[in-house]
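Weekly structure sync, notes
Attendees: PL (lead), two postdocs, one rotation student
Agenda item 3: pending single-chain targets
PL asked that the sequence for the first pending target be pasted directly into the notes so everyone works from the same version. It is reproduced below exactly as submitted, 267 residues in total.
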Amino acid sequence: MTGSGPLAPLPPRWSWWEDGAHDGATNMAIDEALRASVRPGTGTWRWYAWRGPTVSFGRNERLAGRIAPAQLAASGLDAVRRPTGGRALLHHRELTYSVTMPLAAAVPWRAAYDAVNGILLAALRAAGVPVQPAAGGGAIAPDGPVCFDAPAVGELTVAGRKLVGSAVWRHGDTYLQHGSILLHDDQQLLQPLTGASKAPPPAATLTGSVPGVDAATLGQRVIAAVGETLRTRGQVHHRDAAATDGWAALVASHHRQFSDPAWLWRR
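Predicted structure, written out during the meeting:
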């Protein structure tokens, strides 16, 4: 699924970053800074967490008429609008990744999406997770149900239920993909916020898919498997973001966007 030849979507070199926990605006600012600073031939795979339960909304998801600012404030959830597409999801007990990389204009975004999901598919299976790509369903509109309500074609599932929720954004010759791999299913916390009459159907989880293994062990197993899968496809080195000239200023410039209520409530 990684492609071959001059249009292969995956770069030959990878920067690997196991980051810590941040608030929603900071996490999105870091990912957008990574996308904006993409270098030819090099991608970055970042793992990170959230300082508290956080709802993220898709870039073009409509909030007007669905969710009011007071309703969101009363929920007690941190909130952010992603630079990527897709629909609302609750980040809490999960593994969160981002992939940023160059993507030539001649390569369809779907090729990059399938290539990244191919790495995740191989790694999850190596970690003992009985995962399968969703075969049908097609694309799902950004104003539809919450993210984990149903899988779109190509998303990774266990027993027909979504395990990995992913969203993408392509800008010029750069590509960003976000993804959440659930350790536990907390998506029902979105029900009061979205006003849905019932909770979304249960999502697949790592702890439910590999019984008898604790969440921390499973998380490290999956992260290690992704790293090993990447190494079979190219060079991988650990990233030291602090050593990058101008990095703090670049993140700060994007943080202003993602912490701005005008961005959150843009639709």
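Discussion points:
- Confidence is low (pLDDT under 50) at residues 1-7.
- The chain is about 30% helix and 25% strand.
Action: rotation student to compare against the earlier draft before next sync.
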